[in-house]
Amino acid sequence: MKRKWLSKPDFIIILIVAVVAVAALLWQNTASADGAVAEVTIDGETVLELPLSDVTEPQEITLKNGIRLKAEQHTICFLQSDCPDGLCVKVGALEKPGDVAACLPNKTVVSIRGGDNGAVDILTY
């Protein structure tokens, strides 16, 4: 007797799991970041806390170590740094709570914290 590789019930179960996974990813990626705050630290000391929802038009921020940041509505990014590789600039815009970019030579970290999205960071059983 020859068995099919995939029976109809197997296909339906796989389809349901795929639809649930795609829906969960879409829900997580479209979660609102209202109340998100950009926190900038230099050498472990917080030098700036900027509520991203309060930023209505693009603004450039120059830090005391010469790094320039660009804040727009709901996003912040490294605009310019004098570090040799420029990886911090290549990270791009940070917008969701938990996003982090760092310039290690200048000991500068930009992170997004807070937000009212209620997203689950981790599940433990």
How would you explain this protein's 3D organization?
The protein is an alpha+beta fold and 125 residues long. Helix content is 21%, strand content 32%. The protein has helices at residues 8-29, 87-90, and strands spanning 36-42, 45-51, 59-62, 68-72, 75-80, 100-103, 108-114. Strands 2-1-7-6 form a 4-stranded antiparallel β-sheet, with no helix packed on it. A 3-stranded antiparallel β-sheet has the order 3-4-5. A hairpin with a 4-residue loop joins strand 6 (100-103) and strand 7 (108-114). The longest helix is centred in the N-terminal third of the chain and has 22 residues, at 8-29.
Question: Briefly, what is this?
Answer:
The protein is of the alpha+beta class and 125 residues long.
User: Could you give the count of β-strands?
Assistant: 7
The ordered H/E elements are: HEEEEEHEE
Largest sheet: 4 strands, antiparallel
Instruction: Return Rg in Å.
Output: 21 Å
**Intertermini distance:** 42 Å
Arrangement of strands in the largest sheet: 2-1-7-6
Low-confidence stretches: none
Total helical segments: 2
- Please bin the fraction of helical residues: 10-25%
Please, what is the average pLDDT? 85
| Approximate shape | elongated
Sheet-strand content, in percent, reads: 25-35%
- Derived structural class: alpha+beta
